[in-house]
Amino acid sequence: MTQPILTQERLKTKYHYDPKTGDFRYRTRQGGGNPGHIAGYICKNRYRLISVDGKKYPAHRLAWLYVYGAFPLQDIDHINQVKSDNKISNLRDVSRSLNMLNTKAVGYTVVDNRYKAQLMFCGKNLHLGLFTTKEDAIAAYMAKKLELFPTINEQYSSEAITSNF
Length: 165
Hints:
CATH class of the largest domain: Alpha Beta
Radius of gyration: 19 Å
Low-confidence stretches: 152-165
Distance between the termini: 49 Å
Number of helices: 6
CATH topology of the largest domain: Homing Intron 3 (I-Ppo) Encoded Endonuclease, Chain A
Mean pLDDT: 82
């Protein structure tokens, strides 16, 4: 027998979500949780998981459902890269490609005392060149990022992105 799809209405009967803090709190006593206590737990990949009717959901996806009435159509990106920060202002429904651009693991490496700029795009590593300074490598990385995803300019400041390096 298939489990019914979780609805916004059902979620709201079990939990209260505060969009300013990103916290879900129990409305009633459930399992080991008392009313008013923060629901769920942080798992090893640093996302908060919350159980609803016996099924575990990432809290960021539940936040989207709670606020907008439907699950996100794509990936949920944590803009500030903190996986447990589920404030609605920190979440956005984006493509996998755009979500993957908002990572700390991409940018440059040091090769023979020079900085090699690179960017993953559509599963391929794009070599952007070798540079004598870290700042030049970051600039090349940012220029290519903005070329490939022009809308990223509206959603991130270059200061926020370069602070990842």
